[in-house]
Amino acid sequence: MKNEIKKKGVINNEKLIIRQAVDADLEEIKSVVKSAFYCDGDNDEFNEWEFVDKVRCDKGFVKELSIVAVIDNKIVGYILLSEAHIGNNKGLSLGPLGIEPKHKNMGIGKELVKNGLEKAKELGYEWVALTGGNYYLQFGFEPALKHNVILSENNPENDYLKIIFLSKNNINQINGIMKFCDSFYNEKGELL
Q1: Predicted confidence band at 53 (pLDDT cuts at 50, 70, 90)?
Q2: Which end is more exposed in the chain, N or C (fewer Cβ atoms within 10 Å of the end residue's Cβ)?
Q3: What's the Cα-to-Cα distance from 22 to each of 3, 63, 71, 81, 94, rounded to whole Å?
Q4: In whole angstroms, what is the distance from residue 128 CA to residue 143 CA?
């Protein structure tokens, strides 16, 4: 069964299950992601919780890399990795990663990231990139600028682009502009 349980563990005396998401999880996933990201005045054109559904319809969606964390039969965390390109090199982008607020700082995010990276490597992907802060350095991500990987020329987000290489095969050939799957862009081709 493709959505079999990937990992069981205990977090703060609660049983944690990490597994592949299934279609029936969508509304609960969106609720968790919204609880993790919502702020008054958010842009209605793009938000992480609706983005989750949008990516599911994208050719860059990898169902094995849509992963939930479950405690007491309730989804409390979610991670999504979708296909991306740097030049002709196909890899993955990570995001969103969302944890229900009352379950933050329990290590659930770390378990989701570790599981996602392990599964990505099993599937043969050579790299994963994301825009994010220093939280991701603990997993081996490093500034993408170090490898001449950018979002676009003079993009202020270039400083936040991080990358991890899951394989050392083509590191020297992976450089240039990173392109996320189509769902990351508006109708004008601008990164959301």
Answers
A1: confident
A2: N
A3: 7, 8, 16, 15, 18
A4: 12
Q: Output b/e per residue, 75-98; b: 16+ Cβ within 10 A.
A: bbbbbbbbbbbbeebebbbbbbbb
- Name residue, tokens 């609880």: 35
The angle formed by the CA atoms of residues 150, 153 and 155, to the nearest 5 degrees, is 75
Q: Between these two residues, 125 and 6, which has the higher pLDDT value?
A: 125
Is the preceding omega at residue 96 within 30 degrees of 0, hence cis?
A: yes
Which residues contact residue 75 at a Cβ distance below 8 angstroms, ignoring those fewer than 6 apart?
Answer: 25, 28, 29, 32, 68, 69, 100
Strand 127-131 and strand 161-165: pairing? antiparallel
**Using one digit for the tens of pLDDT, what is the confidence trace for 56-69?**
889 999 999 999 99
Alpha helices in the chain (DSSP H): 26-37, 48-56, 108-122
Collapsing DSSP states into helix, strand and coil, what is residue 177? strand
Percent of the chain with pLDDT over 70: 89
Nearest to 4 by CA among 15, 18, 14: 18
Radius of gyration over every alpha carbon of the chain, rounded to an integer in angstroms? 16
pLDDT tens for each residue of 70-98? 999 999 999 999 999 999 999 999 999 99
